[in-house]
Model the fold of this input.
Amino acid sequence: MSIPFGGYASPEQIMRDRAEYARKGIARGRSVVVMQYADGILFVAPNPSKALHKISEIYDRIGFAAVGRYNEFESLRLAGIRYADINGYTFNRNDVTGRGLANLYAQHLGMIFTESIKSFEVEIVVAEVGDAPEDDQIYRITFDGSVFDEQGMAVIGGQADAVGGRLKERYSEGLPLPQALDAALAALTEPGGERPPATQIEVAVLDRGREHRKFLRLSGPRLEKLLEAAKEGQEGAQQPAEQAPVDQAQAEQAPGAAPPIAPEGDIDTGSGE
Done:
């Protein structure tokens, strides 16, 4: 290992500095949510760009999401596609798995983190949809090559801890797609803030019901219709609580019903006081 300018630094200090540098770069981006829903796996990312994607397809059942420097995670995405194509062609398409891709990315990122002067400022998720919800796989890979097998959902980049906390409050197994999208957008939106419009978000799914290629990017009228369904579901969930007092008052004033008995101290004496 070469000695940095300014004198000697211990390997521990160099690793700490690289990790801090990478974390700061990743935190400057916007968070990405990956979560299971009733029919597969949902990807949601705030992204106003129509050309630079944070969410992509890797193979038949496998999706990819990333945050950080675009040129760095794009090189990882392309490497994953080459790996999948070569192995699927040489052996069998079923031999290409999310776990294999996660291990590949972990090796690349770990080597770059320990041997290069500058570590990659990226954090990625590899997700594979199975034939049943219990077969779904979500792997989160950090800048230093660490791999985490996530259960049900994963949040990367930006204020991941805060977004993850809000998502846990709304997440449950087997959510329909509109409700899952509503939960993801609620988690990605700061308290008191406005949700981004359809043109400012990137949404895709791995739909286990599709034939062959499971990846489907949602945009345009299809996404707007889905957002409208999510909004209607949210309003419908809030309506019963708001309507309950009105319905009770109407029941108390129904024709032929006895007038309600006022509690002691609240009796109207008609004195005008």
Remarks:
- The longest strand covers residues 40-46.
- The mean pLDDT is 86.
